[in-house]
């Protein structure tokens, strides 16, 4: 017997974080066999740690009658049904703040990589083409109007970085944020009409599904560049492929996809896209910080009955 709280770890995590959880909890890893894990521990689990691979929905919660807390390893929690959780008195936490700079860095890197064709240039050198002549010229960041789709913490961190690049920065969000200097657009289509570059940083989920559609891409125009570091579900991938194919826009830089780790074959075949394997937070530094915050939330919950970074849907619960 153990008096450590029973915890179900839904997805594999970095070894140091796994070890930290193992030391403090009666841990069961789903490890690709959720059914077996539920059979082993479903009746006693008080905490779930999720990093997005398995939906934490009503059906899963039904099978965890003692569940008290779902700790998300990530700032986005679109796979966790936080509304249902709150209705059942289950608190949900996530890892805001600690990911902002890392994801913002990657967004800017992806923007430059897509416009200046940096991966293509690297391939050009490695293939020995340079000796036969210079690489064809690329598009530029100069003179661009960059629209941020979403202006939360990560959006603001991107805007801060872009300020040094001399581009015009604009944004669309549900509400204008007082005190911010970038120009606000009340609708996405107006932002896309004014801008030639979009960076997507809105949360995933039903509200933002296929927000970037054919009409938005059409407005972006032939010099248009789309960068997505948010969730693949926000972009209509078929419409994006079609827009690239017909030169409706120029290029795209994508860190996220609708059905990860699957990437549409039509994108893999293209030379005008930069494709990354969802690495926005994938550094030793930030993953350690995320793990520490997940752990701090769990410890604070079990020791003091309070969480540190609950999601907005959980506000109102005594532990939030
Ligand atoms: C993933 C992320 O959660 O923070 C987010 O929302 O998308 C990432 O940090 C991370 O890859 C863990 O799987």
Automatic annotation (TrEMBL):
Pfam families, alphabetized: 2-Hacid_dh, 2-Hacid_dh_C
GO CC annotation: cytosol
Alphabetically ordered keywords of this record: NAD, NADP, Oxidoreductase
Cited InterPro entries: D-isomer_2-hydroxyacid_DH, D-isomer_2_OHA_DH_cat_dom, D-isomer_DH_NAD-bd, NAD(P)-bd_dom_sf
Transmembrane segments: none
Keyword flag Nucleus: no
Residue ranges constituting the D-isomer specific 2-hydroxyacid dehydrogenase catalytic domain according to the UniProt record: 8-311
Gene3D superfamilies: NAD(P)-binding Rossmann-like Domain (3.40.50.720)
Keyword Calcium: no
Residue stretches making up the D-isomer specific 2-hydroxyacid dehydrogenase NAD-binding domain: 108-280
Record GO terms (molecular function): glyoxylate reductase (NADPH) activity; hydroxypyruvate reductase [NAD(P)H] activity; NAD binding
PANTHER family tied to this protein: 2-HYDROXYACID DEHYDROGENASE YGL185C-RELATED, 2-HYDROXYACID DEHYDROGENASE-RELATED
Entry's family note: Belongs to the D-isomer specific 2-hydroxyacid dehydrogenase family.
Descriptive protein name: 2-hydroxyacid dehydrogenase
UniProt source species: Methylobrevis albus
